[in-house]
Design a protein that fits this description.
about 375 residues, Immunoglobulin-like, 3 domains, about 15% helix, five-stranded antiparallel beta sheet
Length: about 375
């Protein structure tokens, strides 16, 4: 009987102790929460987590926060309120948000990686990252538009992106294997450069401008571009398609660049327009510049098409002003197509009219005769 009473008292004491322990404990545990705990990523990606620290206790909860990388050499950053943090406090029945940025290295094997966010009284939060492919410790050079087309007078401009996928800052020397007579020029950040510096895991845009050799034949040219540092190198290929060369000349049929004209009269000049390039020209217009009050016209005024190596005659009619004095005047002639133009100047020598010469002689004779008559009439007195 005494033994039964002792057992009953012991049980009651145990129940009372448990009740007191439960009364002294929080109503419920504080927790960590994020909706995405198993994500996939590629080498070089940065995964960003938003993690809630929920305080369901009746008192302020404070905890040190850290990330256990489980031996993986990944970079990470813990922030809250825009600041890096190590400790966080949460008021009763409230929550705070913690941000975790986890960067996948460039040099990494394909597979699943586990990390643990540790937050004291809030507990631990396992996070899994599935790396989709094996990474590489390398540099990479890409071209937005590798193929350009134009004529030999064109400038071919390419936009290249240099990616430093290594773990260190790199100084890359830039070179291009161009055909003989071609010019290659690199620019970055608005400056002409021969090398660029790129931070680890970063990229830089570089512009390549290619100027073909004069009269480069129509062809497809493939140019290799290189970016090399002491520990890493990469290359890309660009293509320049030259459709032909454009050339145009304008001269007189006898190749003389001088002529004469009588004041107030017209002079016709036979011109020759020649396509000296390897590509056809279209819509070639003829224009001229003359002294004041002169006139010029062309027949034909426009040449609709001129094939490579072909010539066409043009007649220029130049009319001088009737007020022009004797002397030399320059008349400018221009043949212009969309792709090319040619200019020449003709020296026009103005001669006075023969009629005015005879009138001048008659005036002189009249003056002489008048003087002679006066001398006869009054000379004896």
């Amino acid at each position: 009987m005494n033994r039964k009473k002792w057992t009953f008292k012991s049980a009651m004491a145990l129940l009372l102790s448990l009740a007191l322990l439960l009364a002294a404990s929080p109503a419920s545990a504080s927790t960590l929460y994020t909706p995405y705990v198993n994500l996939s990523a590629s080498p070089g990606d940065t995964i960003r987590y938003s993690i809630d620290l929920i305080n369901d206790a009746g008192t302020i909860q404070t905890a040190d926060v850290s990330l256990n990388t489980n031996g993986h050499n990944w970079k990470y950053e813990l922030t809250a309120g825009g600041h890096n943090i190590r400790t966080i406090s949460v008021l009763p029945d409230e929550q705070q948000t913690l941000n975790l940025a986890l960067t996948v290295p460039h040099e990494v094997d394909k597979g699943e990686y586990t990390f643990t966010l540790i937050a004291g009284v809030f507990g631990n939060l396992p996070l899994k990252v599935n790396v989709l492919e094996k990474g590489a410790y390398k540099s990479d050079l890409t071209v937005d538009q590798p193929n350009m087309q134009g004529h030999s007078d064109s400038k071919f401009t390419y936009s290249l992106k240099l990616n430093n996928q290594t773990a260190d800052k790199q100084q890359y020397a830039l070179t291009a294997e161009t055909p003989a007579g071609w010019e290659a020029r690199f620019t970055a950040d608005g400056n002409s450069v021969t090398s660029v510096e790129v931070e680890a895991g970063a990229s830089k845009t570089v512009t390549l401008a290619l100027t073909p050799a004069e009269n480069a034949p129509a062809d497809t040219y493939k140019i290799n571009v290189y970016a090399a540092s002491g520990s890493s190198s990469t290359s890309a290929e660009v293509e320049a398609v030259i459709t032909g060369t454009y050339g145009l000349t304008l001269t007189t049929a006898d190749e003389r660049l001088s002529a004469s004209v009588t004041a107030g009269k017209e002079r016709k000049l036979e011109l020759v327009v020649k396509n000296t390039g390897s590509a056809d020209l279209t819509d070639i217009s003829l224009t001229g510049t003359t002294p004041a009050n002169w006139e010029i016209s062309f027949e034909p005024k426009t040449i609709s098409s001129l094939k490579a190596g072909e010539s066409k005659p043009v007649t220029a009619t130049i009319k001088s002003s009737d007020q022009s004095l004797a002397g030399d005047y320059l008349v400018g002639l221009t043949a212009s197509a969309a792709e090319k133009s040619a200019n020449t100047s003709i020296r026009m020598t103005v001669k006075t009219s023969v009629l005015w010469g005879w009138i001048g002689v008659l005036i002189v004779l009249a003056v002489v005769a008048g003087v002679y008559g006066l001398f006869r009439k009054y000379g004896r007195r």
